[in-house]
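Whiteboard transcription, Tuesday session. T.W. wrote the structure tokens on the left side:
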């Protein structure tokens, strides 16, 4: 099969790799029908995730069709169309019993495209298939389902829920990439009074406004003053960091009000300064987290019911064999305007049947 392979920092190749096979009774083999590229994949290519070894097939988000299943798989079967979650769960360890699947001790967690071969390929082996893939309703198309593999549960769990967004809140989201834009949608589920988005790219600010943000501004503007003006001088109730660089995290701590919550979602590859000399007296809560995908069934139900939509988020579409071109476009998002990219095989090109 063909696959996108990490060859060390700054190096990747689209090349032949061995077809995956069942290695454990709980495995499933999935033919990839649609796949996407994550900002985390770019972090890996930069060398920010040293646990990823050379020769690894990248990718942790996909929709596909089960072509083989181990004897221990009971919840899904050959022929089922499924969402492949970015998180794999053994279902048995202490953390999985708590619903913290991202911290799985039994061989799961974030392993696809990280510790084992991932989804940016024609086929993928998915361990613990009963708890790591989700059968898709007929009215949810591949393109919409891709958003549930990572970005929507990440924005919802690590951003909105960790940030404790409540009705009437002022929410600041720093970063209007796919995760930041998804955080707009998931924050709106809790009826905040205002959502303010900060991003340096004008196309992304426009996308934020299109998705329902009340204000979108650049980081070179007086962000703290704008936030105070929209919050009766108090500051943000919730600040969601969705970039992963020191400046954006520090901006979140500058705009948060006493008693507020800073929810860090971004993947950081460098240290950030924590200004405790300012924060110690402000009763501020700072949260971090890796997505658990415990909310994926809930989000999938909402998507199928037409209660969750992110129109316009996928800006570029490619065939699966155009993976290298897709990476080039996504890695130059400031020039290309790319938000989220989808790649399809012929099997995954059926038109969307859902309104999203």
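and on the right, the sequence the group agreed on:
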């Amino acid at each position: 099969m063909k696959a996108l392979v990490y060859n060390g920092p700054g190096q990747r190749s689209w090349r032949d790799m061995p077809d995956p096979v069942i290695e454990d009774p709980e495995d499933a083999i999935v033919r990839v029908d649609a796949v996407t590229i994550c900002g985390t994949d770019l972090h890996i290519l930069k060398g920010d995730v040293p646990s990823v070894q050379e020769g690894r097939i990248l990718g942790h988000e996909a929709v596909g069709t089960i072509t083989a299943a181990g004897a221990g798989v009971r919840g899904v079967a050959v022929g089922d169309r499924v969402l492949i979650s970015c998180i794999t769960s053994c279902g048995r360890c202490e953390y999985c019993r708590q619903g913290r699947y991202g911290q799985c001790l039994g061989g799961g967690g974030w392993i696809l495209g990280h510790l084992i071969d991932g989804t940016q390929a024609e086929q993928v082996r998915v361990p613990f298939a009963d708890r790591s893939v989700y059968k898709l309703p007929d009215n949810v198309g591949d393109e919409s389902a891709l958003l549930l593999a990572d970005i929507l549960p990440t924005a919802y769990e690590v951003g909105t829920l960790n940030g404790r967004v409540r009705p009437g809140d002022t929410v600041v989201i720093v970063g209007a990439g796919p995760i930041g834009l998804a955080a707009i949608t998931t924050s709106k589920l809790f009826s905040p009074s205002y959502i303010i988005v900060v991003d340096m790219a004008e196309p992304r600010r426009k996308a934020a406004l299109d998705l329902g943000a009340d204000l979108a501004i650049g980081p070179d503007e007086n962000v703290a003053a704008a936030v105070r003006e929209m919050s009766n001088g108090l500051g943000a109730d919730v600040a969601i960091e969705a970039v992963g660089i020191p400046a954006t995290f520090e901006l979140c701590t500058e705009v948060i009000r006493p008693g507020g919550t800073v929810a860090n979602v971004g993947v950081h590859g460098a240290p950030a300064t924590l200004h405790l000399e300012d924060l110690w007296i402000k009763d501020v809560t700072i949260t971090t987290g890796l997505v658990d995908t415990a909310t994926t069934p809930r989000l999938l139900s909402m998507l199928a019911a037409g209660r969750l939509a992110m129109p316009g988020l996928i800006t570029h579409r490619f065939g699966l064999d155009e993976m290298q071109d897709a990476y080039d476009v996504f890695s130059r998002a400031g020039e290309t305007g790319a938000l989220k990219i989808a790649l399809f095989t012929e099997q995954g090109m059926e038109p969307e049947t859902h309104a999203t």
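Someone added at the bottom: The two ends are 32 Å apart (CA to CA).
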